[in-house]
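Good morning,

Both structures are done.
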Amino acid sequence: MTRITVLAVTCLIASGLSVANAQTADSQKRPHIIFVMADDMGWGQTGYRNHPVLKTPNLDLMAANGLRLERFYAGCCVCSPTRASVLTGRSPVRSGVLTHGYALRHQEKTIAQALKAAGYVTGHFGKWHLNGLRGPGVPILAEDTYGPGHFGFDEWVSVTNFFEVDPLMSRQGKFEQMEGDSSEVAMAEAIKFLEKHKDGDKPMFAVVWFGTPHAPFKALDDDKTPFGNLTADSENHYGELVAMDRSIGTLRSALREMKIADDTLFVFCSDNGGLPRIEPDTVGGLRGKKGSVYEGGLRVPAIIEWPSMIQPRISSYPACTTDLFPTVADLLGLPEDVFVKPLDGVSLTPLLADDIGPREQPIGFRFQKQGAWVDNDWKLVATHRGQRNKFELYNLKDDPHEQKDLSQAQPERLAKLQEAYQAWDTGVQASYAGDDYAAGKLTESDPEPHFWTIDPRYKKYLPEWKDRWEYRSHIQKALKN
């Protein structure tokens, strides 16, 4: 973009108009968009947050040059639901993705579908985990109707779930044996996609979902060497993050070499809070870990970099993965019918230009028997969702570690937040039942989540894969049964 265009677009963002309007006037292409997401990386696991052993020089550079979001929330405290929230802008329960291994409903509308219809070329690389399959990541089958290609991705090199060093992946249904660290493998494929299409007439949308640092942990020898004094799991866990950070640097360098960095909106985040039993701590001292609706299970590292548009700074504005689709739609001026409504996310477009006031729409969470409601500085926690008088109340500004329950001291505020949360929860339940869809109901049953080792479509591959270290124990168990 020219300097004049950047100034014009910044003014339009501040006034709530779309970037597409400014760029059309200057005959500029719309921005390329890249979403990158770690798998089980905690809020405290970056160098810029002064982690005691982990260094993340490339994420640190990205944070220093972009918008560092200190109160960014995953859409859920486990992985598949958060992935659904990224794609739809909605609470994952609305879209039928209740926990890990659930499939995204065909009746949902995704950001990839919206961008493809708007003229983008789209690609997915890495972990998918929205096709109803559990167990370590295996290549997605060409005939899988819940794979990336059925949700708007033109090209994909993907696996069903978490994946490790030297992964076996699927290139649009064709299996390929890859070599190297899993993050670098996925990123290399994404960069090939960008190089392939950078000179074309379509802007690019790439989604890179790592399998790092999800268990089982297996890092390259050089990457885990600095952590040799830790337990084996912690050593490999942090070694995987070293490689993941390096892949971020590879992407940032590639964007600059391709001369498209200034015109690329690049978002990095994690899919849920950090893991327990990893030392040093993964969540920066927050309460809770993955699977919990306390801050440590939901708050994740997040950075948005767009060199021509975003002035480097740190923001404490509460934001969420559900905001990504609405933000992109707002920037591009996409029509409202690209969404299934109601949305739970809001556009962060004004935040890209400057700090803004309090968030008008609270962020709701629902996972199994837990629930949470984040309304700026205040947070309601339900540890036994559905039961009255089982709510905790925290002021996150004064008590970021959620140590002092104010539910007894602030009964009026508790009642107000509880009423708002329960109204939202009732609406989410109606969405889950299918009320939001054009038909007013579910037109097909949700697939039952299951392990791929008992899926008839994968049966023929079990003998071939039984000696692969990442599959061995799962296949042995299936064959015994």
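Second structure follows.
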Amino acid sequence: MRKLILATFLFISCIAFSQKIHTKKVNSLEFNSDRGIKLYLPEGHDTDTIRKYPVAIVLNNDYLFDIYLGNSKIYAKSDLTPKQIVVGLDVDSRPNQDVSTVGKSGGLTARSKKFYNYIKKELIPYLEANYKTSPYLTIVGDGEAGNFLLHFLKEQEPLFNAYVSISPRLTEQSIRLLTTYNLKRLGELDNQFYLYMSSNAFEKEERKKLFQQAKDGLESLDIKNLHLGFKAYNDVPNKPAAIAKAPTDIFSTIFELYPKISKEEFETKLKDLDPLEAIKYLESKYLDIEYLYGTNLNVRLEDIYAVEGIVIDKQDGDYLRVLGDFVMIKHPDSHLGEYYVGLYHELGKDYEQALFYYKEAYGKMELSDPNAELFYENIRRVENALKNAPKDEQIDELPLEEEEQEETPQEDDQQEDDGGN
């Protein structure tokens, strides 16, 4: 199976193997022995003193580890996901071993309970103590391991944010257990959770029905912060192809908040907002990314451009100053913030202030910037507006004084008339 996957997806595997992968031993009291892991640390882990990285625990240190790692590198390079620490576990998938379940009840066997506790009480604390991990944890498995990992959903204090179950070997008992986990409690937690589950055309008919049953049941719960992804790969030539295709849908599900604003996101969530709401949406998006994934990702300039048109075109550009101040904080070396503030003043016909900010913005641009000369047109335009602006009319106070003098005799005459009476 592994040879077939590697032959079909050689490019992804080469990317995975080209990274520095460490082989580690984790001492386990559960097993009274060491357990082997493969560990990939993303570029910058050892030198970046600020950034923390989401962790993916893959219940396989062979083909599935290679596929997940290769795709995670590609997606992170494309800025579609954060960089991840990827951990591949040495898993014995034979019956009655690490990921086995009891047939009649669907519960864990004595051996798999040890493996469960090893992950929960030993592996995760080991990773958190030794590496720059963020709180965002993903667990990934296929087949028996895909079924096994669903047991972590029962934890009252969730260990994972994302559960990736690829072609799990579902049984009626495992479906029944899912209904006992009180997943609605997740809706009361201040966090986001993701569950991805897949099947393929080569599954037994009974298992396909169980997959659909799990999908219908979980979707009916309607838990706002439990985001579900279900995919049936019915157009693949074989089972390995279904496994290898899964990461595309996995990453779009479990890292849905991370990518820059897409056309769909703009059309459905941004387009109809007022300027201030659009700015708040942008700020909230990146606060959520930092909170959820633990990454200190700065606001992308592309996303600033996405809200720019809303702020300029609506409400006469009254919130350009707010957008400009926001950008100056997030990108102090960029000319963009001063440009927005300058445009705000220009639209308000305060040409002196507009000229000041445009010059400040121009001063931040490199002379080699191909847009520098075009940007300087803003300065020329405002300078011409200042020259052509009508001078303020000076107030002549003399007529007012004459009017007061003319009014005074009338008051005196009135006083004489009163005295005469």
